[in-house]
Amino acid sequence: MEAKLITIVDYCKYSQVEAEFIAMLKGEDLIEIFVVSGEECIAIDQMPLLEQYARWYYEMQINLEGIDALRHMLERVRHLQNSINMLENKLRLYE
Amino acid sequence: MDFIDYYKVLNLDKSASEADVKKAYRKLARKFHPDLNPNDKEAQAKFQQINEANEVLSDPEKRKKYDQYGKDWQHADAFAQSRQSRGQAYQGGANPFGGYSGSADFGGGDFSDFFSSMFGGSTGGRSGGRQTQFRGQDYKSELHLSLRSAAETHKQTISVNGKSIRMTVPAGVANGQEVRLKGQGGPGVNNGPNGDLYITFIIADDPDFKRIGDNLYLNKEIDLFTAVLGGEVMIDTLDGKVKLKVKPETQNGTQVRLKGKGFPVYKKEGKFGDLIVTYGVKIPTHLSEEQKEGFRKLADLM
User: What pTM value is reported for the model?
Assistant: First the structure.
């Protein structure tokens, strides 16, 4: 299925996110940018992720390196949470 | 409705500058922001307070009103009206902060009654001076299911922000599993896409079956004689009763696996886990003297 895209110019116009910030995310492989007819675009599906990074960057002043580290840490938290859920379910067998 | 000490929430004193407020907010947001504390309701509640404190203390007009009336907030508007009637200027009128709009799309959520009462109907706010004016707000909701209803694909209607949404719950969803309903969140602005609705399934414990992944576990009591001599027992499965043969000399705690009688595998139609039956041998109680004698004779034979 083809991804729905929005140009970065349009996105930045309304979201108060700077194009430079999106370029920096791209530089760190944190977000994917598509070029369609010479215009840089992002997939609509990536917007929640982009918004999350923007919140970290603009509101909490977390720099790009911090964003990358947090991304990894949150992924680990998710894995650990899944393991805890599994273990809790197993423990219920003995309750 | 209690007074909220916003300075205390941000660990600041009343002389704090705007920069101090910003710094304190950022420091606490990095600790309690819902993005960084997934599924932590305590952190989320704490963040709402921090967000609200920042909303008030970083806005000079709101902060002025808050500082002026403090614990007498209930009389704030009355004071303002009486001052106006005496011909004194009151900045912004009786309800100077009404009409604020924004979107709380990072989970800031609702503001407290105290805030709403003092500053008028709030619609949330994206702190730090940025407001999304494009993609709609994401909503989160929980859907509570019984184990048995989670085993069948069925339709459910849920109400989120006053809107009824009919959704299909696929058989095999897990407790704590989150699904995203694309575009079912808040409306987008400036032709932006709608936000998404995230639903977390909460599956209640079942009195009979325990579930681990796609396998179900069932404890079945059998009497001593069936355990020793063998026999048949009826057991419940999700799709009806099944007759099981019990082998002679079955030990307490013996497990029998019934392939394909467990929980449906999520989004794999026709695939099921196993049902694992654990036998618990029931020792007879309240024996008559004659029955005890029978056991003694049996013991002598062993």
Answer: 0.73
Residues on chain B touching A16 (C-beta within 8 angstroms): 130-133
Q: Do B26 and A59 touch (CB under 8 A)?
A: yes
Q: Which of A13, A52, A59 sits opposite B29 (nearest CB)?
A: A59
The confidence band for B81, taking pLDDT boundaries of 50, 70 and 90, is low
Q: B139-203 has which CATH code?
A: 2.60.260.20
Domains detected in chain A: 5-92 (1.10.1660)
The CATH class of the B209-301 domain is mainly beta
Q: What is the mean pLDDT of chain B?
A: 84
Distance CA(B63)–CA(B61), nearest Å, equals 5
| Equal fold, B139-203 vs B209-301 | yes
- Where does B6-119 sit in CATH, by number? 1.10.287.110
Helix (H) / strand (E) element for B81: namely helix B76-85
- Torsion angles phi and psi, residue A84, rounded to 5: -60, -45
Taking 70 as the threshold, does the pLDDT of residue B1 lie above it? no
With CB atoms and an 8 Å threshold, state whether B135 touches A92. no
- Rounded-to-integer distance, Cα B184 and Cα B179, Å: 12
Residue B207 pLDDT class (50, 70, 90 cuts): very high
Contact flag A70-B217 (C-beta cutoff 8 Å) = no
* Tens-digit pLDDT profile for residues B211-268: 999 999 999 999 999 999 999 999 999 999 999 999 999 999 999 999 999 999 999 9
Contacts of A51 in chain B (CB under 8 A): 105-106, 132, 135
Neighbour tally for A8: CB within 10 Å: 21
Of A61, A85, A93, which is closest to B217 when you measure between CB atoms?
A: A93
Asked if residue B68 lies in contact with residue B41, where contact means CB atoms within 8 angstroms, the answer is no
pLDDT reading at B82 higher than 60 = no
Mutation for B interface: A14, A22, A62, A91, most B CBs within 10 A: A14
